[in-house]
Amino acid sequence: GQSLEQPSEVTAVEGAIVQINCTYQTSGFYGLSWYQQHDGGAPTFLSYNALDGLEETGRFSSFLSRSDSYGYLLLQELQMKDSASYFCAVRDRDYKLSFGAGTTVTVRA
Amino acid sequence: GAVVSQHPSRVICKSGTSVKIECRSLDFQATTMFWYRQFPKQSLMLMATSNEGSKATYEQGVEKDKFLINHASLTLSTLTVTSAHPEDSSFYICSARGGATPAYEQYFGPGTRLTVT
Predict the structure, then answer these.
(1) What is the mean pLDDT of the segment spanning A63-83?
(2) By CA distance, what is B35's nearest residue in A?
(3) B103 contacts A45? CB cut-off 8 A
């Protein structure tokens, strides 16, 4: 089975940097994905790491350390529209995703 | 590209009736579709995986006779909630992968909010 842990809430001001950590325990690891979901909306793909290291996509970056079963999502230059829930998810061999409980990010002016 | 639609977006039904939710990949062929449910302020829980032309694979604890999944074509999967009860009220979301999309990426539909009265 899969088990993921991430913080439940993070609050920060506009322009700040936020890091959302995700630790996982898994029977078979093929990659770590990050999704953003606004209230009532569909999850949207942000980033994916299959190998150790940092992936940068605009203001968002994601990091993975397979030896530590750990990853993080870095949100830079926070904007009000970044207020949302962020989920880490591990992928198995069959491309099924197991999601963490989600981190609610609140951006204050 | 890689757009997934769901219909209906909201549905209210009476206890004991059945409801069908459609999931379509609009601009790619989805070899695999996934169905999730999400309770308020909670995570997405995978219910089942469906591959075109074959029977769906259900996750442990999901009643296959209650949640009927059909993946009749490469662009359409349906989820039918049979004999719905209030505890089935939830946000149901589908996702799809396949075609030229990156293998690791799933594209999610906008979700269907089901309320059973």
Answers:
(1) 97
(2) A96
(3) no
